Structure formats: C-alpha cells, structure tokens
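Kindly inspect the following:
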Amino acid sequence: MSDYALGRDLDRVIRAALDEDLPAHDVTTRALGVAGRAAEAVFLAKQPCTVSGLAAAARVFALVDPAVVFQPLVRDGANVDAGTELARVSGSAGSLLAAERTALNLLQRLAGIATATRRLVDAVAGLSCLVLDTRKTTPGWRLLEKAAVRDGGGVNHRFSLSDGVLIKDNHVRLAGGVRAAVAAVRARTLPATRVEVEASTLAEVEEALAAGADVVLLDNADPTLARAAARLVAGTAVLELSGGITEENARAMAASGADCISSGALTHSAPAVDISLEFL
C-alpha cells in the first residue's frame, strides 16, 4: 500500500475498528492466562491473490502494542500462490490476539480489491486502455481501498467530489441540458478545468462533444455501442466506459477504442481473500 493511504486516515480507520472489536479487554485471552506469553504467528494466503494491506496490518499491531515486531515477507502489489507466507509477527500472545481480527479484516478486504483489480487489468493487457475505480467505496475506507486498486495495477478516478467535474444525468436535469450544464461549469471554473460528461446513447455522446466535453463517460454500453462512440469521439475527447464492466467483457469493451474503463465493483463487490493468522 502506498504512503498516500497512510498517516492519519489509516490510524482513524484502525482506531475505530479497534474500539469496535476491543472496547475493554480480551475476555478469552485473559481467562486463559496466556496474555503475557511470548508468541509468533504467520499470515498465510489460503488462495492465490494480489497482496494489499500489509502496511495497514502492521499499523494495527503497532497501535495495539508498539513492542510487537511485524515482518513482511512479500510486498503489497505482489501476486502470490496459495500457501504463501505474507508476514510474521512476534510479541506477547495477548497483543497478537487483540490485533488479529482487525488486521485480518483489513488485509483480507484490501487484498480482495487488489486481486479483483489485477484480474481486470490482466483481462485488458496489451490494449491501450486504463482500468479505473470509482467513488463506490466503503464509507471511511476510501483512501485505503483506492490504494488497494493501485496495488492491483489500476488507476484512481476522483477521490472526492472536490477533485474534478463530472456532469451526470441529475446535473443535466437540474441545469436544463448538457450544453447548459457545460456552459455553467465553464463560466465558474478555471479555463484548464477538465470537464467530464456522462452519456448513455450516441445522441448524448454527440451532444457532449458539441458542448465541448473533455471526457465522455459512456454508461452501461455494450461493445457495439462502445465502438460507435469511439468512432464519434475519434480523439477529440477521452472516452471512458463504465457500468457493467466485468472480467468477462472487459477486453471486448477496452478493444472498442476506449481510453479507459471504470468499475465500481472493484471496491464495492470484491470478495475478501482467504488469509489466516496461524500461531507457530
């Protein structure tokens, strides 16, 4: 995971998760009387995956107990086979058990996103088409999940509503049309501001181009419609395809001539990777 997702945002997520999972103390470990025992454990991938979240997992242990030693054995972004040891941790058994679930939740979720992204990136390999994410992220986890997309080889779209202009259908309705919407944005932003406009038909693509859109976002298209849109755009704007992008259809969509494909499923529907923490 890159440094972009570290710092205060990561600590905020982890502290909230620890407050949820460990509001007082670990009743089981205390009752067993093993909390002070020295222990070592290994994070083990139980399925092939693209790794992400090791830095987040390490931070969990550091916040629980700075004396815990976390040793990554692979890097975030690495593609690993089932059975691969991802990291080792050592310290008091009480600290390792207190941090275990939160660390695994982060690691499994973020590796799931990186793995889903890698599959989509591999599906369009050799084509000049980028794989983008969206803002359809887990509330509060956006920076972490977008870092996981990068670990999987994807590229981040907007991080927030403050990062760029994207005129969607509801904006068009409120503004009174595509031309009016683009004109209003141009009048209130710097000249170099990139304006993206959503379209769902060829007529709307033409309207967006005529209005001066820099990027056309064609939503829920099939490969035939995407190819026709690419011919219309023909280098005069960036063409982004979104909606219904899957590992199965990604290559056909990317081969249409689009510059990028975006998928909300990368962050809202990626299955968690099966990773365990096993004491040695």
Remarks:
- The chain has a mean pLDDT of 93.
- Residues 133 and 263 are 5 Å apart (CA to CA).
